[in-house]
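W.,

You were right to be curious about this one. When I first looked at the sequence I had no strong expectations either way, so I just let the prediction run and decided to look at it fresh. Below is the sequence, 575 residues in total, followed by the output.
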Amino acid sequence: MITTRQLGITFVALCATSFIGCATGERDDDGGDRQDNSLNNIPQQPSAAVCNNPGGKHCLAQVRVDGFNHIHADATPQGFGPPDMVSAYKIDTTKAGGTIGIVDAYDYANAESDLAAYRTQYGLPACTTANGCFKRVNQTGAASPLPAASPSGDDWSVEAALDLDMASAACPKCKLVLIEAQDDQGDGLYIGNNAGPTVGANVVSNSWGGPEPTNSASMETYFNHAGIGYFVASGDNGNTGTQSDYPSTSAFVTGVGGTSLVKASNTRGWTEGAWSDGGSSCSLHIAKPSFQTQTVCSKRAAADVASVGDPNTGLAVYNKANGGWIVVGGTSAASPFVAGVYALYGLNGTGPSYSYAHAANFFDVTTGTNGSCSTIMCHAGAGWDGPTGNGTPNGTAIAGGAGSGSGSGSGSGGGCTPACSGKTCGDDGCGGTCGTCPTGDTCSAGVCMASGGGGGACEHPICSTGAAETASCDTCAGEVCSKDSYCCTTAWDSICVGEVSSICGESCTGGGGGGSGSGGGSTCSHSICSQGKKLTKTCDSCAADICSEDSYCCSTKWDSQCVSEVGSICGESCN
């Protein structure tokens, strides 16, 4: 074991209190929510904040420490690395991406060399000043003068290393610009966001925050730059009650919460729950935006989305000054990663409303809590919630993958091999090895299209990207085009596919409760996205997958845990 300097604060051993005090959480006969044992059984490791500016703006990185409150370092990576993040969030890192701006305080002299060590370890392409991929600038976007190094006990270099590594994991081909604020005392961190346009950033990540100032409305201009997406960590103090966090509650940023992430033997291969210390809050001064209708806050609420942040399921980070390979977490990890995903898929200027209009593009996180309040501001559940927002990125869905939904909302469910496209399911070949479409449906580009439903004269399934559709070809296409004319005049892109869910209420991920139909499987006694009596394996392919791993759902009742497994096991959305 390698250890290095002692942190200037007391470490905390984080217990996953969001999962019933680390208990196993047996299922009650009254149908109470079950807890995922894989989340309950996360080994608890001591961790500590690395930045120390009490009551003010501070970074949110949480680093793993030993029993003597030293940063714990190893000779080789121990936390999750890029391959894990690619697997968990289904992202296609072969895409070119754009430019990611990262705002931190103080100078990080080893930034480029530490970044090189991380990227070399994981086989990522070089990102250097020489090849034009990496820049380090001051808060105005200039190459000099750079600020002084972090003072003792307020080590922003760990934060900056985490941010650069997570952005690299999400988008290896993106350019990176580290924007260094003069310090964390004045307005430098705000001013650094104004440098976004100067350095050509498509997205800008902020892994810092603090109590919302009384003049927060006047600070909004720093995050309002056309065509640039701004991302802010939602905090590491759980639900903060009457004390809101800023700038995660800015009207112009995407607030990013944190999850606990573990590998699982389900279809996705992973499961997530709300991290017990991930932040959520209601703004005191910023008006409630029109897209945020689900919250119980009278004003702006955070988070909007999330990704892994729990230091107990932390990320591998390289920082030579602190011993080399360390494990770091916090919503600090989530913000640059999610910003990188948005840059990867060209969602740069979509703003915080994107996840609300395209909730089907996120893995819904339905378990865990981050506080003692009784509302969704503290408790993860189906749909939007405070700790995890609309969920964590699903790269496959963001890219416009067709999935296996019917597109028409007819609820036929199932999927078919794209090579069978054009065949009518039944004895003539669209079935068996070709897929599981109900007899009479048509296989179209991997999607089972109900007879007389979605498809018809459409150019392609409405759950697939492609040429512009005609509004008359499908009821949902008509609804989408009435609100987003681009989809019927220019192209049916991934945003149009997302609107199949957000506008029509239909699912492009198979067995979900598609539109007006019965959801996944016409013989199910109720939608797989609704609680109720037990279902049978034969009624729906997703129900079969769930019951194979969780027999309770087909032997006793279909409770909230079964509903959550529509996402965690089948990779489908109930939003």
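Here's what jumped out at me. The two ends are 46 Å apart (CA to CA). And, maybe more interesting for your project: The longest strand covers residues 253-263.

Coffee later to discuss?

I.
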